[in-house]
Amino acid sequence: xxxxxxxxxxxxxxxxxxxxxxxxxxxxxxxxxxxxxxxxxxxxxxxxxxxxxxxxxxxxxxxxxxxxxxxxxxxxxxxxxxxxxxxxxxxxxxxxxxxxxxxxxxxxxxxxxxxxxxxxxxxxxxxxxxxxxxxxxxxxxxxxxxxxxxxxxxxxxxxxxxxxxxxxxxxxxxxxxxxxxxxxxxxxxxxxxxxxxxxxxxxxxxxxxxxxxxxxxxxxxxxxxxxxxxxxxxxxxxxxxxxxxxxxxxxxxxxxxxxxxxxxxxxxxxxxxxxxxxxxxxxxxxxxxxxxxxxxxxxxxxxxxxxxxxxxxxxxxxxxxxxxxxxxxxxxxxxxxxxxxxxxxxxxxxxxxxxxxxxxxxxxxxxx
Length: 368
Hints:
By secondary structure, this protein is α/β, with parallel strands linked by helices.
C-alpha cells in the first residue's frame, strides 16, 4: 500500500515536471524570467552611486572664502563644478537645460558675514526628477559646507559655532545605493509573480486539453505539484542568492538557516496560492492577462516602494494575505539589517498561516 502511494506521488511529480519542461512559455516564465529580470534590473541599478555630477556655483568670485568653498565643492567626489556664474537666472537656465543637475548659490555677503562672525546662507538647488543625481548634489554640497564650517570653527578656537552640529551616518546601506535598497525585494516579488503566472498557465493548459492526473487524491496531487515547483525554484533561487548576490554585492548578513527559514514557507505559500488561483482560468493566456498587472500592487503593499505608514492601515493588513508582503519585510530585516529570527517571528507566523490557508485552497482547487 505504501509503495503504491509512493509510486502514485512520483507519477504526479513526473507528470508535472514533464508538463513544465515541454511548454516553452512556462519554461520562459517559471525558469528564465527570474534570471532575465533580475539581471536586467541589477545592471540598471549597477551604477547606483553617481560621481562627478555637474553643478553650477553662483557667487564664487565674491571673495577668498567663497573661492575656497567653491574649490571644496569641486574636490568632492560626488559633484564637480561645471559652471561658475554671478547670475542666479543663468544658473537656473543651465539647470533647466540639463547642463547641470544642481545649483549652489553662495550669498553675496558670504565673506563679510564669516569675517564678522555672522552666519551666512547657502542655497542648494537640485533636479529632484532624477533621484540619484539629486541625492549626490545634496550630499556633495552639504559635505563641503560641513568641512568648511569645521575649518572655520578650528581657526576661531570654537568661538564661532553654527547653531546645530550633526554627524551623518548611513546604516545598512553605506553608499545609499538604490539597487541594494530595492533589488532583494524585487527578486522575491519576481519569484511570486512568475510562479502565479506559470502555474496558472499549466493548470489552464490541462483544462484546455482535458488532461487528468493519474491519481484521484487531491492531497496527493497538491503535494506532487508543490514538490515539483519547490525543486525548480530551489535551484533558480539558490543560484540568485549565491552567485547573483555575490556578483552585484548585495548584502547577505543572515546565516543560511535563517535564509531557509524565510524562503521555505514563502515558496510553499506562493506555489500553493498559484495552484488555488490556477483553477480560475479556462485558457492559458488568461493567467498572463489577469496576473501580470498585479506586480505593481504587490510591490506597493510589500512596503518597499512606499512605506506602510503612507497608506491606510486597512490596506496594509489586507496586503498581508499576499506572501511577498511578510517575506520581503522579513528578508530585508535579516539579510540587510542582520536581524534574528526572533525579530521576524510575526512575519514567519503569518507565512506559515498562509501555507495552511492556501494549502487548503489548493487541495480544493485540485479536487476540481
